[in-house]
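Re: weekly structure request thread

Next one in the queue (208 aa):
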Amino acid sequence: MRPRCVLGKLPRMTDPGPLTLRERKKQRTRQALVETAIAIFSERGFDATPLDALLDEVEVSRRTFFRNFRSKEDVALAAVKELWSAYLEVLDETAKSGPLADVFRDAMLATLGRMDENWYQRFPATLRLIDESPALNGHTLRHCAETEAEIVRRLGDSRLELRLLVEFCVAAWRCALDEWLPDCAPGELPGHVRRAFAAMDGSVRLRA
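Done, posted below.
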């Protein structure tokens, strides 16, 4: 099973208001690092590409890089981290009523609606990098566990049932991605998510 969620201790997203010239420059640098990282890691392989190769390509110093990212893994996984950062924001904003599985599903659908075209271009490439790199795969698994723990913490309920439900929902998300990845059409991902979540209840009732 492929790991499909990544998250560290992420801040809640807020509206920053108009950006200053310095902030816009920092944003452009960060975007250049992300887009170039995906391009050269996809071409040369994540494990085979040293960080200095990325820095030379974008023409930034190590100091500038580490003001934006914590590690080479961090920049490679930017698209996935953006998704889960937005997901936590949506989940915080969502009224918690009715079946929680539906709440988690609808939060994901709303999150996908916030992602722009650039993100939809980077996201599949990022998932392929994870599949191809043992280092990224291990990094992803650690952060996946942190993601699930953060969702449980924000709901303020550590019951076994809730922790299992979060695991089931993450598994449904992974299955949706596995169905989506061959074509990667942006408009089709929500449909795969709906189908995977709809199949979840029946799957735990399967009999031998």
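The longest helix spans residues 21-44. The chain is about 70% helix and 0% strand.
Next request, please.
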